[in-house]
Design brief:
This protein is of the alpha/beta class. The protein is built from twelve helices and ten strands. The protein has a six-stranded mixed beta sheet with strand order 6-7-8-3-9-10, sandwiched between helices. It binds adenosine-5'-triphosphate and magnesium ion.
Length: 268
């Protein structure tokens, strides 16, 4: 059975439609990556799935159960855990104390503090250190461990690699297959497009709150992804969105070059 089913989801921030009639499905055991330019609505989508932003319309089903109106704590109990953008650890608490905050609404399942230490062996020695003393990559690992401790069926990670050195990113992604093998499905927002295409079973590209391209990385060309990302060409149906995205490309030329270069490097 489909693990997560999102239908026609619309989420507003005030008057702004940040997620706009978006539909997607996540199957158990897969890694789905969400890519898209700044402001595309990636974080709003994840926050809406975690119950931190309530949708204006649309539905969210988890394992066939309608959780659209569930508040955040009930979503944790239902099996969704979010690693938020910026990690949000308690800086004055130790590594282990941070991990244990994730066990507050623990469901039965494979993840325990010990199991997280097996996933990230360096944590054992540093479990009594304050989170403030950790590097960005170490903090991200603790944030992932904390989320796993609720034993989610679906792990949401916002900007997994943002601000981290490539070697650190590789190390964090190395554990993803182990997380999935333990029975946790992953939906990740990844700003590094080539990284997303390498690790994901399927990718959705968001543009102005809509999913404008979806598929398996092997089935998508760099050109398709580039067009969807920047809102140019045929992938985008809506003329207004297309024009706005073109403006965005002009404003955001450096980001465009960087992302396209990443894509090319990732695929050749
Ligand atoms: N709390 C908020 N209040 C008002 N507008 C918001 C709020 N959060 C996000 N937005 C707006 O909603 C839109 C989508 O933002 P969101 O953070 O979901 O995008 P994103 O794809 O995660 O972007 P980024 O890549 O920069 O993280 C943007 O136009 C943003 O300015
Ligand atoms: Mg974001």
């Amino acid at each position: 059975m489909t693990l997560l089913s999102v239908r026609d989801l619309t989420v507003h921030h005030g008057l702004l439609r940040a997620v706009d009639g978006l539909s997607l499905e996540v199957e158990p055991g897969e890694v789905l990556a969400i890519i898209g330019a700044n402001g595309a609505g990636k974080s709003t989508l994840l926050r809406a799935l975690a119950g931190l932003n309530l949708p204006t319309s649309g539905t969210v089903h988890l394992g066939g159960r309608d959780i659209t109106r569930f508040p955040a704590h009930k979503r944790t109990s239902a099996g969704i855990a979010l690693v938020p953008e910026g990690r949000r650890l308690f800086r004055s608490l130790t590594v282990e104390e941070n991990l244990l905050t994730g066990a507050y609404r623990k469901r039965p399942g494979p993840w325990s503090v010990e199991r997280v230490y097996e996933l990230f062996p360096w944590m054992t020695e540093r479990r009594r250190q304050n989170a403030a003393q950790l590097s960005g990559g170490e903090q991200q690992a603790v944030a992932i461990g904390r989320a796993l401790l609720s034993n989610p069926d679906l792990l949401l990670v916002d900007e997994l690699s943002l601000g981290l050195a490539p070697v650190v990113v590789r190390r964090i992604y190395q554990v993803l297959p182990e997380i999935v093998a333990a029975g946790t499905t992953a939906l990740i927002v990844e700003q590094d497009v080539s990284q997303a295409l390498r690790v994901a079973d399927r990718v959705h590209c968001l543009l102005e709150g809509r999913s404008v391209l979806a598929g398996r990385p092997a089935e998508l060309t760099a050109e398709q992804v580039g067009h969807a990302y920047f809102g140019i060409g045929d992938t985008v149906q809506d003329g207004a969105a297309k024009d706005a995205a073109k403006d965005g490309v002009v404003r955001d030329g450096a980001a465009k070059d960087g992302a396209l270069k990443d894509m090319e490097e990732g695929r050749h």
